[in-house]
Amino acid sequence: MGILEKMRLDGKKGFVTGGARGIGKCVATALAEAGCDIAIVDMDIAEAEKSALAIREATGRDVFAICCDVTNPEDVNAMVDAVLARFSRIDVAFCNAGICVNAPAEEMTFDQWKKVLDVNLTGVFLTAQAAGKVMLRQGKGSIINTASMSGHIVNVPQPQCAYNASKAGVIQLTKSMAVEWATRGVRVNCISPGYIGTELITARADLVPLIEQWNSIAPMHRLGKPEELQSIVVYLAGDTSSFTTGSDFVIDGAFTSF
Ligand code: NAD
Question: pTM here?
Fold first, then answer.
């Protein structure tokens, strides 16, 4: 069997949080194209249903939507139960839902801080923990978390201390779980994208004017595309990455390289 065949995900089952749009939807499409049945998990159930239908029709895989707020442990446990009820196992968990709030550190409210940490860090913890329990019982599974280059550098000029702190937390959480579960068949990795042209940025009137400024210092002078994150997640989800755990993949067009 050639390497591309070995990288396929036929027969695997998984879920993607924040799967309704943006990076989550794009990566869920790639996982389904590679043969994985997928639950599209999002708090925006209307958009999640639309995305699930589109991916199902495009790939012929079993793709369905689940409404879940990743900050709520009961929601997360119910989501994992729903995935198990449909698929009987969980091979792949892409813990990707995230938000960004911009405010100077001295003005950031407790509510703003807490919301960002709840979604980006606690949400990833709850989701990875719930999926991890299932995978540990199975003796096998791959968890991929979405961190950010903001877990490595402080982006400018927009002030986003909560976001940066939350993403640094995701990287260390990923490594911690990877070490704890390394001998038990469950791998945990994360991706750290640079600026990617999704609605996280393009739907924000305060951020759109900054794109030119970011691009002027970016070595490739452009934003990344969600499609440019697909293959790394497919790789991490599959069995050819069996020695890859506790790793953080920075995909940023060299933004953090200088
Ligand atoms: P996006 O805003 O386009 O999509 C995020 C999705 O997450 C939405 O569908 C939203 O409904 C969902 N979501 C938000 N809060 C949720 C919650 N509590 N429970 C369940 N779902 C929730 O954003 P995106 O650009 O696709 O970002 C995806 C991930 O990638 C995030 O973790 C983000 O921080 C990270 N990231 C994005 C960029 C970028 O430049 N776009 C760069 C680095 C990292």
Answer: 0.98
